[in-house]
Amino acid sequence: MKIEDYLSSLPSSIISGEDVELSDKTLREIFRFAGLTTNDVFYHLGCGSDNSVMISVQEFMVKKAIGIDNNKDKITHVQKLLEEKHLSNGSFRCEDVTLSDISDATVILFWFSDERIIEKMISKFEDLRSGCKIITIWGPLIGHMPDKVDFPYILNVTPLKKANSLRDQMLSIFNTDCIDFAVAWEFADRYSKSIGSKNLENDRFLTILQTLVIWINAKNLGIACGDDIPDPIKSYMGILKTFFNIEVEHLLDH
Predict the structure, then answer these.
(1) Which domains, ranges and CATH numbers included, belong to the chain?
(2) Among 23, 96, 224, 244, which is most buried by a count of CB atoms within 10 Å?
């Protein structure tokens, strides 16, 4: 089974991140990374049922915090929690993020994998006030250079800066001249820990998959260290194929 077929067999909510709830620890890391202050108007686009609005209001004392999601049940749940805490400068909207008014935003958390949504939102982001910070997780805004990186957290500031190439974008994210197995594993592990589940075995599997994705992308872009496939990469490719019937080697440009 090719990895594309494996991923397509999973529920779409897993692939999109819809049912992945960011931990309070991760949210605090993101807010410190973004330098969230009392002057900020914070938006979490695709907020789900996590505590981003509550933490930004209670602990970072933002001027205003808004969570937007199109899942009515999740919005009802978090709105009730907000009311119980009597946090008047926090609110939630059950809306399509691509149609929402976010014109007063100064900091935005935006974690989507659907390229159609990302492209629509980039157009909206380009109309925002200068200096607005947009935080993504794992993947940067398509076609744009990040202003700050603490992987897996990536920050773009408006006006957005176009990337000359995917290669330049990737090198800026990993802050290295070439990517070897150790770098790929380190960055994949950071991602797994940031969205980690309670099942360590799942996190380990995710780290292996993401390590291979990072290294293969680097190899195809000509920024992997050396010409040969490193032994650990070969080993993990073999493990996936032998024990999980998942094949990834075809992704390499030969």
Answers:
(1) 15-173 (3.40.50.150), 178-251 (no CATH)
(2) 224
